[in-house]
């Protein structure tokens, strides 16, 4: 994965503005200095895309701003796998966390499983 590049200030600003200073995934407001640049198609697939269609995964159309939490959790996942992992969280919490199960039992937390829509997808829906 030595194909990562250092982003210029102008490139960072361009990525930051894509979602108006918010994480493209959860929608949390982030400061420019806190923003991490996420590769929508993970860099893990860099060589494959380069060979198959000549695509450079460092192109601006493959970059989105992300908060540290979302970027770390997404890691090398595709959007579909990231979405599925998030949607599976309530089941994982129910299975693995006594604290969560107690919070549900005492009405402190109410599970609301649902399909996940990323913040950037809500922006795209408004413009189309």
Features:
128 residues, mainly alpha, single chain, 6 helices
Fold and architecture overview:
With about 130 residues, the chain is mainly alpha-helical. The protein is about 45% helix and about 5% strand. It is globular, with a radius of gyration of 17 Å.
Work out the number of β strands.
2
Q: Kindly estimate the percentage of residues that lie in beta strands according to DSSP.
A: 5-15%
Strand order of the largest sheet: 1-2
Q: In angstroms, what is the radius of gyration?
A: 17 Å
Large-scale geometry: globular
Tell me the series of helices and strands, N- to C-terminal.
HEHEHHHH
Please, what is the oligomeric state?
single chain
Unreliable spans are none
The number of domains is: 1
In DSSP terms, counting alpha (H) and pi (I) runs of 4 or more, how many helices? 6
Span of the ends, CA to CA: 35 Å
| Averaged pLDDT | 92
Sheet/helix structural class: mainly alpha
Largest sheet: 2 strands, antiparallel
> What proportion of the residues is helical, as a percent range?
40-55%
Question: What does the secondary structure layout of this molecule look like, with pairings?
Answer:
Elements: H1 9-17, E1 36-39, H2 46-53, E2 63-66, H3 68-74, H4 79-96, H5 98-105, H6 119-127
Antiparallel strand pairs: 1-2
